[in-house]
Write a structure and sequence with these properties.
- This protein folds into two domains: about 5-75, no CATH class; about 95-190, Arc Repressor Mutant, subunit A (Orthogonal Bundle).
- Helices cover about 40% and strands about 15% of the residues.
- By secondary structure, it is an alpha+beta fold.
- The radius of gyration is 22 Å and the shape is globular.
- About 20% of the residues are buried.
């Protein structure tokens, strides 16, 4: 195992690698898109329960005789592959390469989050699930690149965050959403950026439903 940083980093790095290996061996279901979820845990106790290890613990504490890897699988959305050319106003050539890479990554994040927002049936998108699942699977980035790109997108206002109660845990879940009025989002998604999630009612010929109901009651 690659021993570095903390247990959370190790889990995030192993998940896409395990998913890739199993997919290559055709050991994942053919219907839908599945991704591996890796958790470092303590062995079963006397009652048969498995407790998760502290994710902030240094990875140098890893001991194969003390910890076990719990691998599960989650069904995720099939996010469209990136186009060969992004329709984005690229930075001026005079800007350094690192900034250009950051702008490209932000644009890719916007595309992935837009895709997830339009397909999800959930009431919100959890930051951690998007970063470690959807974004990592769609881009192939490592955990550091996913975390840095998402953090910068939040700092620049491209992505908004909000807290969602998460009982019985005392800590709320951080949810994210695209700031669809942001100039960068507008450039990437085009004029339809704000209307993609908006419900437009369809007018049906005939009398209003309320009038029909009142008429039948008389």
């Amino acid at each position: 195992m690659d021993i570095r940083k903390n247990f959370q980093t190790v889990e995030s790095d192993l998940a896409p690698q395990i998913t890739t290996v199993l997919a290559h061996q055709k050991l994942l279901p053919t219907e839908g898109t599945y991704s591996a979820k890796v958790e470092i845990c303590l062995p079963r106790d006397s009652k048969g329960k498995i407790r998760k290890a502290r994710r902030s613990a240094s990875a140098e504490n890893w001991d194969p005789q003390k910890y076990v890897l719990l691998i599960s699988f989650e069904k995720s959305f099939a996010v469209a592959k990136p186009p060969s050319r992004l329709v984005v106003n690229l930075p001026d050539p005079g800007i350094d390469r690192e900034q250009q890479q950051g702008d490209h990554d932000a644009a890719r994040l916007v595309q992935v989050l837009d895709e997830v927002e339009r397909k999800t049936t959930l009431s919100f998108i959890a930051l951690k699930k998007f970063r470690d699942g959807y974004l990592a699977n769609a881009t192939g980035w490592n955990s550091e690149r996913c975390d840095e790109t998402l953090r910068e997108s939040i700092q620049t206002g491209v992505v908004r965050t909000r807290k969602i109660p998460n009982p019985p845990s005392p800590f709320p879940t951080t949810a994210i959403e695209l700031s669809r009025q942001h100039p960068l989002v507008q450039r990437i998604l085009g004029p339809s950026a704000e209307s993609r999630l908006r419900f437009d009612p369809v007018r049906i010929a005939g009398a209003a439903l309320s009038e029909t109901v009142l008429k039948e009651r008389r």
